[in-house]
């Protein structure tokens, strides 16, 4: 599944007058043998696309819930190769695009070109690399382009206007609007200016704008979605799956339609 697959699903959601919902899960948490089952469950529950984390020992952008999931996954022996091999098995009957989220280190260890090529083979549509600064994108863009994988950029609340403009112009797949200052993890509320911030991003972004970090209730989903194209939810979903509460995950995803 190529980059274009992401454009198609977001367009479908928009044409239906709905908002996108992208759940994040940590590959290997709960056993790699259950990964494809979880992906299927999220797709059947109405996910627009799925963000799949590859665990890394020093996840600087992650809060406690995702850090813990990463440790569980690493302890279970999860590797880059094993994750890609596993998702490749169902690439032809997967209806929802997959986006990989990981850090630079595992990719450099694997080799950038080899990684991009393996992602293409596994049917991956996009990549999120939170520790890749705009100035260093040259390290990966050529390989990602060659293998038709979108580089999904993150905009911080604290990004300068010039930086925001540069990120919005280059955006592909979707533009990830980080809604809090800090790491991933559930939050009770958002800053007052969040609506204006998201609307301003949406006005200049080439790709759809999705809000993520701290989104953890159906109310948050509705609140933030009104200002942009949808949301990304990680910690709440990782925690619910860990506790075996699939219903909570399904209810959260269902809240994108209103
Ligand atoms: O967990 P939260 O607060 O719902 O945030 C989303 C997030 O988990 C997911 O998109 C993600 C997990 N790790 C990341 C690192 C950087 C950017 C994004 C992520």
UniProtKB/TrEMBL annotation:
Pathway: Amino-acid biosynthesis; L-tryptophan biosynthesis; L-tryptophan from chorismate: step 5/5. Keywords: Amino-acid biosynthesis, Aromatic amino acid biosynthesis, Lyase, Tryptophan biosynthesis. GO terms for molecular function: tryptophan synthase activity. PROSITE patterns: TRP_SYNTHASE_ALPHA. Its EC number is 4.2.1.20. It comes from the Bacteria. The active site is at residues 51, 62. Pfam families: Trp_syntA (PF00290). It catalyses: (1S,2R)-1-C-(indol-3-yl)glycerol 3-phosphate + L-serine = D-glyceraldehyde 3-phosphate + L-tryptophan + H2O. GO terms for cellular component: cytosol. Tetramer of two alpha and two beta chains. Belongs to the TrpA family. The alpha subunit is responsible for the aldol cleavage of indoleglycerol phosphate to indole and glyceraldehyde 3-phosphate. This is Tryptophan synthase alpha chain. It comes from Terribacillus aidingensis. The lineage of its organism: Bacteria, Bacillati, Bacillota, Bacilli, Bacillales.
């Amino acid at each position: 599944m190529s980059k274009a697959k992401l454009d198609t699903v977001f367009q479908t959601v928009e044409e239906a007058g709905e908002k996108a919902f992208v759940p994040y899960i940590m590959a290997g948490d709960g056993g790699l043998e259950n990964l494809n089952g979880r992906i299927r469950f999220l797709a059947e529950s109405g996910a627009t696309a799925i963000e799949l984390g590859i665990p890394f020992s020093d996840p600087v952008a992650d809060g406690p819930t995702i850090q813990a999931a990463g440790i569980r996954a690493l302890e279970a022996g999860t590797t880059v190769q094993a994750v890609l091999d596993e998702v490749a098995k169902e690439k032809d009957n997967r209806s929802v695009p997959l986006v990989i989220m990981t850090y630079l280190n595992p990719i450099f260890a694997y080799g950038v070109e080899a990684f991009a090529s393996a992602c293409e083979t596994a049917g991956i549509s996009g990549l999120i690399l939170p520790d890749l600064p705009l100035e260093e994108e040259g390290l990966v863009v050529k390989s990602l382009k060659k293998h038709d994988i979108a580089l999904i950029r993150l905009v911080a609340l604290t990004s300068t206007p010039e930086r925001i403009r540069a990120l919005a112009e280059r955006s592909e797949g979707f533009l990830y609007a980080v809604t809090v200052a800090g790491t991933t993890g559930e939050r009770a509320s958002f800053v007052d200016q969040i609506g204006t911030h998201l609307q301003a991003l949406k006005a200049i972004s080439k790709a759809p704008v999705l809000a993520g970090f701290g989104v953890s209730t159906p109310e948050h989903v509705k609140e933030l979605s009104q200002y942009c194209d949808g949301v990304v939810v990680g910690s709440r979903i990782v925690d619910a799956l860990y506790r075996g509460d699939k219903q909570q995950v399904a209810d959260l995803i269902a809240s994108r339609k209103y």
